[in-house]
User: Which sequence fits this backbone?
């Protein structure tokens, strides 16, 4: 999961070395925090958040965690 999000983000940005993904897991929630360079935020979010929504959709679709809720959080 973490690796998939990292690969997608690195393909979108100009500074792939600045991309990092951290995982935090609770009882029923898995939070993936994506951090990119300040200059690349627009490329990851996209117009009206379309790219961010697409990233979240792909990551959620690739998971078979049953009842777990998956959250992709994009940070600076």
Assistant:
């Amino acid at each position: 999961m973490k690796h998939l999000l990292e690969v997608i983000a690195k393909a979108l940005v100009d500074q792939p070395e600045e991309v990092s993904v951290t995982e935090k897991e609770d009882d029923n929630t898995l939070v993936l925090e994506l951090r990119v360079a300040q200059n690349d935020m627009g490329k990851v979010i996209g117009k009206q958040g379309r790219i961010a929504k697409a990233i979240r959709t792909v990551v959620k679709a690739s998971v078979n965690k049953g009842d777990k809720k998956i959250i992709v959080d994009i940070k600076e």
In short: The beta strands are 20-25, 29-35, 69-75.
